[in-house]
């Protein structure tokens, strides 16, 4: 793979573009605002999202999506989950034939309850083997600083996943392949909701036992949903499951965990949103779509349900704690 387009110059889009470029792949990064593209080309820095990080010379930027897409062998979609459909609709006529379409987004679409790979297949009218997802413990700021991490590239077409794996392997970024797209996507979407719950617990002043309990029970409810949707249960013990869940629930760099912490300390949703400075905390919306998906499938997801009620029905996080602990007693594996 010689040339890749990355569409979306936020934290993760810019960082993943840097990873590709560091791996020797030529990258064109699309930024929504022309001034961001100009600044990247001029100063080699995306000051809004990755201040202080110097981007490699084989990474160029543009605000013209057609320019970014021309000749790309892979198209990496690095926009928020809830805008992906709209963004891709605007780009679909210019997608290069046979390019691999890669989702970086971690969420479930409101209304349709679709995973991002499903949205991509529908909007771009491509078969499932042309769509890949990247998911794992990948806090952008750490990776941009060159700190070692691993990730998963999931695609039903193993050869496509391997091509992408080669295009983004660096001494600090180790991608594994997986054919379980459903499991990897659900792991990435659900962990944001669980991180909100962990943040709330921390904001309420609770310690590591509480957070570890939420992480573990969060993984149990994610796996229950995954089983119902045909995911491989072992995926949830891997990087896109437990790996990402632990990183996001524990890190002060996580937007979801930080957002939850603010709610736990008593901020309103609007106050927490303002403090996020326009950066996306995907779990705030995905808690509602995942809850609805679970309800439709008859899957019990009490933490997700509680996070939805705090975010969108005004439930006090302290009442959520009592409600979760007061549930009917049961066996761990039930
Ligand atoms: N930041 C991370 O550490 C990280 C890591 C892994 C996965 N992700 C996932 O990647 C996706 C993108 O995250 P990010 O961190 O780059 O987000 P971000 O908020 O930093 O950036 C989002 C980017 O999308 C662009 N965009 C295009 N159309 C938009 C629209 N209509 N509305 C809003 N923004 C629009 C914005 O201009 C911005 O450049 C999310 O689903 C996130 O969960 C993020
Ligand atoms: O900052 P967050 O909470 O969106 O999490 C970032 C990544 O998804 C961690 O893998």
From TrEMBL:
Gene Ontology molecular function: glycerol-3-phosphate dehydrogenase (NAD+) activity; glycerol-3-phosphate dehydrogenase (NADP+) activity; NAD binding
Cited Gene3D superfamilies: N-(1-d-carboxylethyl)-l-norvaline Dehydrogenase, domain 2, NAD(P)-binding Rossmann-like Domain
Gene Ontology biological process terms in this record: carbohydrate metabolic process; glycerol-3-phosphate biosynthetic process; glycerol-3-phosphate catabolic process; glycerophospholipid metabolic process; phospholipid biosynthetic process
Positions of the Glycerol-3-phosphate dehydrogenase NAD-dependent N-terminal domain: 4-159
Active site per UniProt: 191
Residues the record lists as binding substrate: 106, 255-256
Keyword Oxidoreductase: yes
Binding site for NADPH: 11-12, 32-33, 49, 106, 140, 255, 280, 282
A Pfam family this chain is assigned to: NAD_Gly3P_dh_C
Top-rank lineage group of the source organism: Bacteria
InterPro entries registered for this protein in UniProt: 6-PGluconate_DH-like_C_sf (IPR008927), 6PGD_dom2 (IPR013328), G3P_DH_NAD-dep (IPR006168), G3P_DH_NAD-dep_C (IPR006109), G3P_DH_NAD-dep_N (IPR011128), NAD(P)-bd_dom_sf (IPR036291)
Metabolic or biological pathway: Membrane lipid metabolism; glycerophospholipid metabolism
A GO cellular component annotation in the UniProt record: cytosol
Entry binding sites for sn-glycerol 3-phosphate: 106, 136, 191, 244, 254-256
Subcellular location: Cytoplasm
Keyword Cytoplasm: yes
Domain Glycerol-3-phosphate dehydrogenase NAD-dependent C-terminal: 180-319
Residue sites binding NAD(+) per the record: 8-13, 140, 255
First-level EC class: oxidoreductase
Keywords: Cytoplasm, Lipid biosynthesis, Lipid metabolism, NAD, NADP, Nucleotide-binding, Oxidoreductase, Phospholipid biosynthesis, Phospholipid metabolism
Family: Belongs to the NAD-dependent glycerol-3-phosphate dehydrogenase family.
Described purpose of this protein according to its UniProt entry: Catalyzes the reduction of the glycolytic intermediate dihydroxyacetone phosphate (DHAP) to sn-glycerol 3-phosphate (G3P), the key precursor for phospholipid synthesis.
Protein name: Glycerol-3-phosphate dehydrogenase [NAD(P)+]
Originating gene: gpsA
């Amino acid at each position: 793979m010689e040339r890749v387009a990355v569409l979306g110059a936020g934290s993760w889009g810019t960082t993943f573009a840097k990873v590709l470029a560091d791996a020797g792949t030529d990258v064109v990064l699309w930024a929504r605002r022309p001034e961001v593209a100009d600044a990247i080309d001029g100063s080699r820095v995306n000051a809004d999202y990755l201040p202080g990080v110097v981007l490699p010379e084989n990474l160029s930027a543009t605000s013209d999506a057609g320019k970014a897409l021309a000749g790309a062998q892979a198209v990496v979609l690095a926009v928020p989950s809830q805008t992906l459909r709209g963004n891709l609709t605007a780009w679909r006529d210019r997608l290069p034939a046979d390019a691999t379409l890669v989702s970086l987004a971690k969420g479930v679409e409101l209304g349709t309850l679709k995973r991002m790979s499903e949205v991509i297949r529908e909007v771009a009218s491509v078969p499932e083997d042309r769509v890949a997802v990247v998911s794992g413990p990948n806090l952008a700021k750490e990776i941009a600083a060159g700190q070692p991490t691993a990730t998963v590239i999931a695609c039903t077409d193993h050869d496509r996943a391997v091509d992408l794996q080669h295009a983004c392997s660096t001494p600090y970024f180790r991608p594994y392949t997986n054919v379980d797209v459903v499991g990897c996507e659900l792991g990435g979407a659900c962990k944001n909701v669980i991180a909100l719950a962990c943040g709330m617990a921390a904001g309420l002043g609770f310690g590591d036992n509480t957070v570890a309990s939420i992480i573990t029970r969060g993984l149990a409810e994610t796996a229950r949903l995954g089983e119902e949707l045909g995911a491989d249960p072992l995926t949830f013990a891997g990087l896109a499951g437990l790996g990402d869940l632990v990183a996001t629930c524990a890190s002060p760099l996580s937007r979801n965990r930080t957002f939850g912490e603010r709610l736990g300390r008593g901020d309103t949703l609007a106050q927490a949103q303002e403090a996020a400075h326009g950066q996306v905390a995907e779990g705030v919306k995905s808690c509602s779509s995942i809850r609805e998906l679970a309800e439709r499938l008859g899957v019990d997801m009490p933490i997700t349900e509680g996070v939805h009620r705090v975010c969108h029905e005004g439930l006090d996080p302290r009442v959520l704690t009592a409600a979760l602990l007061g549930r009917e007693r049961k066996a761990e594996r039930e």
